[in-house]
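dumping the sequnces here before i forget
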Amino acid sequence: MRGKRLHALKRPKLRQSWNKYNLYNFWRQRDPKIGLKDDETFFQQKWRAKGLLRSYHGEHVRERDWERMFSRRLLSVANMDARYMAEWDGSEQAAGRGSGQDKRPNWNAPDVKPMTLTPYMNMAFAPLERRLDVAVFRALFASSARQARGMCVHGHVKVNGKVTPHPTYKLNPGDMISVNPDIVMFATGRPKGKAYVEPTPSGTASAAKNKKLRELYERGVCYACRKPGHLAAHCPGAGASEQELSVAEAESDATVSAQQAAAEQDPDTTDAPEAPVEDMKPTREAIQSLMSQAKLVLAAEAPTLKVKQKRDLRSFIKQAKPLLSRAGRPSATPSDIASELTKMVSELNLVDISNDTQEAAAQEAASSSETREPPKSIDDLTTDERKALERLIREEEENPIDPSKPYATPWRPRSYMAPFAFIPKYLEVNQNVCSAVYLRHPVARVGRAEVPTPYGYRINQLAFNWYLRRR
Amino acid sequence: MAGPPRSRDTVSGFLDFASRRNKKFGVRVVGVKEGIAYPALLPSSCQDRTNLISSRFSLRAQLSQPWTTQSRTYMARHRRDFIKWTRGPGKLLKEPRPDQTNYLETKDSKGNMLKRPFPLNPEFKSEAVLDDKAREMIWEEVMRKGKTIKQVSAELGVDITRVAAIVRLKEVEKDWISKGKKLATPYCKAILSMVPTKSFKSAEQQNVPFEPINELHIHASTMKQIFWPTSESRHFTRADAAKAFHKDMLPADERVPHPELLQMEKSLLEGKSVWEAKAEFMDAAEKSERNAAERQMRRAMAEDSATRKFNTERFEFRFKEFNSEDVGRDGRRKKAVGWKYGMPSYDRMKGAIKIPTKVPQIGWS
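..and the predicted 3d for all of it:
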């Protein structure tokens, strides 16, 4: 099991996984066209078909185990119309020559509908869907069958309330599987990126800066202008002083490195070389410190901030994250990043109306008494504002920022997940408690089969035939 | 590294051209200085082992030499294509669409655009699941209004087993809420916005059924084709057909999940009013459910009375009476206890893990 390349690009194989490489392989796959030409023997066709399907179905299950699990008995159901059954007792089926009264075919019909078949062959790998780990993956509790297997082995999965550390356990109809919600959210959520890492007490410059900022906050000193008596949100020069300073630093770094790059370039070379790798560390640190400042303001001054300001701050943090990751790429230039950052900071209007310049305040006070003052308590809020605040608080309660969690908070589904998100009919899932009931074994119906399999009828048929031999 | 150096590894188009030209004469390019290629004097087998300019391992060495230009960083074609994909079509698949599925696109035989989780498998579709509101409604119907599972199943068009499972899972959810355990609400919201969902208006209103509820399991005995001669005048019904397949087989009318529904339709055909037929159905459904519960209770009690229990601090020992002579005709009966001649026992085999075949739903304490 170890050392196998699961998601290859060169010789791609489809897997039970939400990996982005796997999605790319799904996206670019074309019909393998087995058995359409006569260049392959039947054996070869079966071999290739079973290879294609086995790499998806229980690739972590040994061949011998799967062969023992394989069953030639394919389950299916027929929809019985109660009305028809009440009207007819079945004797009409025995009329004529024993298979129902013959109907005269309509030779003049413009087009004859082809018969919809019941894709029994798509049920070839149905026994694997009974496995506990596969069911955990199908219920969307894990991002791959292998991860689901790990969950079982590590005791995070219960069957009917009992911890079942056997990923090979075959579920019986009516079995309830429950997975620890924290583990599910870790498996299906975004990973904790660098942007989410809490500053460590020692080490990086940004960590030291954060510590300093916290100290300032504790002493009641504004972090923007370093003057006591007011907080950063009410600072008259908040936008101008520190935030822009760090951006300016980043910009100056960018110009210097660009000049260096220009000097190093040799005009005689025939081929333009790639731009030398620029030192993005100061830029990244500037972004990080801005983000941590915004977070601190958000955490410490939540009661004094307005809803819109908070929203702006959150969106600033949200925008800063991709910017930070972009700054880490080799193609990034400090000037680009800095200009974007400046734009974002300028959009972020944290300065309160009341704390604008004194002249404006005086003018306002003099000219109009009906101008609404910033609300001092919750009672002063309008109904809409209160509703918005309630919604925000509810969202925050449901999905809080919690650095102790092993996933990125607030929780968001991992990227490239939606194309894989489907729940087969034989499972009933309650996502709130991360539990599912295995209702019955998967079945085939007219036109549909419940086994989620990447290929259609023909390839499944060949694979089924492969496993039929000597049986 | 067999063959001439490839263009992505070499420095310039010129070098690429030169290498292609020289291939004919068996000369290979090993170095470049200001755009001039030097042919190699070594036999090609030796060259392969030396660090050629084409090798990406020599890249670092080259960078330190002032007379060469920088080579492009190595990236395999497939990887390049993948990165291109992440910026193009893959970008649309990265994030879920709000309250919409985001499956892969494919075309059917008529050229219509379709979205499916498996583009090459038209026989698998992502089918709708019941949303949280519908689940809550089903729980209300069963637990608050006291309807039977069969009644709710017939009213809303949800499979019997699914109704039971929804109630069971909802009970767990309510238990968590009462205990103050945190639900995975953001996860639930995210999943239900990604998969197709179905909701109900209210139980009183007419709802579009969620799924077919009267599905008959295709029994293996009915899969065979049999030749069964009967007289032409005989009225050969479904019950006769079942007997023809197997002597113990019940007719389809009794094997379907909702035989009461059949009875209701028959009453309607006989001319009874809808209200009357429905009342009859409700009674029958309740009765059948009660019977099933009684049967289950009786079985459990019989099991209980046949078992003697001894509780110690750590274990509960349960003893049952078995007849060691009861081994069947050939001595290999599955339920027979003890060692049987010719039957391998893997009980003590090294490395054999005893994986349970079932976990009882009740009885674990």
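The first strand of chain A starts at residue 77 and ends at 79.
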